[in-house]
Structures are given as structure tokens and as C-alpha cells.
Design a protein that fits this description.
10 helices
Amino acid sequence: MGSNEELKSPYKALIPHFKELKVRISKSLLFILVIFIFLFPFSDIIYQQLAEPLISRLPSDSSMIAIDVASPFFIPFKLVLILSIFISIPYLLYHLWMFTAPGLYEKEKKLVLPVLVSSSLLFYLGAAFAYFVVFPLIFAFFISIAPDGIAVMTDISRYLDFVITLFFAFGFAFEVPVITVILVLTNVSTTASLSKKRPYVIVGAFVIGMLLTPPDVISQTLLAVPIWLLFELGIVFSKIITKKKNSIIKDKIHDDISNDT
């Protein structure tokens, strides 16, 4: 009997964590649902705004088309659902942080919140860069190279999949400074070691650009170059933080020595 109770006790200890996880997931889903309900009446307007970088560059005799019968309904529905999740990212990260915070040390708690805030801001910045910089360039390029006599007409479903892929690709690519700083702060690597790996990072950036973007040089370069530059920015911030951290440690050691004497 004693052994059975011992086996059950670890599971009993996990029950409160599962309950809290369930509550936080429920709140997150409810938040997404509320945003979805609010945005859905404007789904057509949202899709038109999303498609504007392409539509504004199409020839006057071209337009977007819907191949599937149900696409005019399901595509705006899908767009609003993805946008609702996209907008909810800070709220989702907040609940993730609140769920994991009790198990973290005080030093880790101080690190997590700034990381989550900066991650959210950089993700949105990457998506904005894709919309305002990348889309106009690559759509103008694609349309300009279309052979004479070919009418450029894009299916709304394929267009949505295309732009969503780029949004997330650039959003996650802009997380590079955060990843770089975390590697240094957690002593997984150093700024000197990361600087030596610069050639590998540049090659890796172009490989990522090749895998996550359409098969054209422009979009690959527009993703690879920011990854490299953001890596350099991450090294700069890491050096500043490391210098400040070392200065605090030196001051503390100096104060301890002064107190001992």
C-alpha cells in the first residue's frame, strides 16, 4: 500500500500545475476568440489591406481570383483567425511567463520579462518590415518579369499562404538579437566566440533565406541581410550588457573587501 501511495504522490503534486495550465490556456483561447469576433466583420477590409502591396502593382487589366468556390468565405475567416493569434502574442507570452515564473530563480525572473517584451516588439517589427519593405519590392519584381501576353492573376488562397509565411519568417528572423543576448547572459557563449562565428552566421542567414522565402534572389537577400545585421546588433548589446554586468560585479567585490577591512 505504501508503494502505491508513493507512486500516486508525484501525480498529485502535478495536478495543481495542470489545473493552472488549463486555466491559462482557456484564458488565452478566450482572448483570441474575443479578438476574432471583433475583427471578423472587418475581414474583407483587412484582406484588401493585406493584398494592397500586390493589387497596387498589378496591371489595370488584372485582378486577384478565387479558384475554390468556398475561398471567398474561408480565406477571410482564416486571415482573421491568424491575425487574432498574431495580435494576441504578447498576451500569450504573458501567460506563458506567469505559468513558468514560480519555477524560476529570482535572477531568471528578472531576465524573462524583458526578453518576452523585446521578443514581441521585434516580432512585430519583422512583420512590419516584410509588409512595408519586402512585399512592394518582390511583387514589383515578380510582375515586371512576367512574359508579354501573360495576365498576372493570383489566387487569394495562395497569396494568403505566401504572405503569412513571409510574415512569420521575418518575425522570427528579427528575434536574432534576443537569442544572441540570451546566449551571452546564460554563459552558453561569449561575445568573442560569437564574433568568430560571424562567417558561419552569414552563410546560415542566406540558407535560412533560401528555405523560408520564395526562390528568388531579392526576397532571400532581404531576409538574410537583416538576420546578419541583427546578429551584429545582438553582439553590440551583449557587449554593453556584459560590460555593465562585470562593472557591477567589480563594485560588489570592492564593497565586500572594504567591509571586511
